[in-house]
Every structure is written in structure tokens, then in C-alpha cells.
Specification:
Layout (H helix, E strand, L loop, with lengths): L2 E6 L10 H16 L2 E7 L8 H6 L2 E4 L6 H18 L4 E4 L3
Parallel strand pairs: 1-2, 1-4, 2-3
């Protein structure tokens, strides 16, 4: 079974790639091409909004609303991400948001 890697970037605006989102998407495209792992994206982006290579290459897309209060969301993620990781069998979480 391949290891599952979560790319976590909930603060990005869906459909409007910032520098952070473009960097994450490029990195994911390269990693998917190398192979060996399953990649999951957690963000406000729906699969249909992603570049085609990611639409096809990601193992899963977890769509979450963009948080209204970013600092509060960081604290909430600290509490909720461990359960999300267990539920989705995540082996490694990469927090892309600055």
C-alpha cells in the first residue's frame, strides 16, 4: 500500500491561484509524476477547478470552506487534523499555507 500524503492549504481562494497555490500545484504535479505515493489535497478548491494533471493524479480532494478568521482556523486545525488524518489514513501532512 502506498503512503498517503496530505497537502493542507485551506486558506487559499478557490479558483484564484496565488503564488502559494501555484507552487503547491507545481510541486504536486512533479511528485505525482515521480510516483510512489498517494496525494490528497485539502483546500477550498474543487477537483474541477484544479489543473487537469491534478484532477487525474490526486488520490482524493477534500474540499473545505476558506476560513473567515485564519488565526482561529489554525487553532482548530491543531485540534481536528489528527482525527482527519486517522479517518483518511494519512501518513504525512504537509501544511502548505504560510
Amino acid at each position: 500500500m502506498k503512503l498517503r500524503v496530505l497537502f493542507n492549504m485551506p486558506s487559499q481562494f478557490a479558483g484564484h491561484p496565488s503564488g502559494v497555490a501555484r507552487m503547491a500545484f507545481q510541486l504536486l504535479e512533479e511528485l505525482i509524476e515521480i510516483g510512489g505515493y498517494q496525494y490528497i489535497l485539502r483546500s477550498p478548491w474543487m477537483r474541477t477547478q484544479l489543473p487537469q494533471s491534478l484532477q487525474l493524479g490526486l488520490a482524493d480532494v477534500i474540499v473545505v470552506p476558506r476560513p473567515r478568521i485564519l488565526v482561529l482556523d489554525v487553532l482548530m486545525q491543531r485540534l481536528l487534523l489528527p482525527a482527519l488524518a486517522r479517518r483518511n489514513q494519512i501518513d504525512l501532512a504537509v501544511n502548505v499555507d504560510p
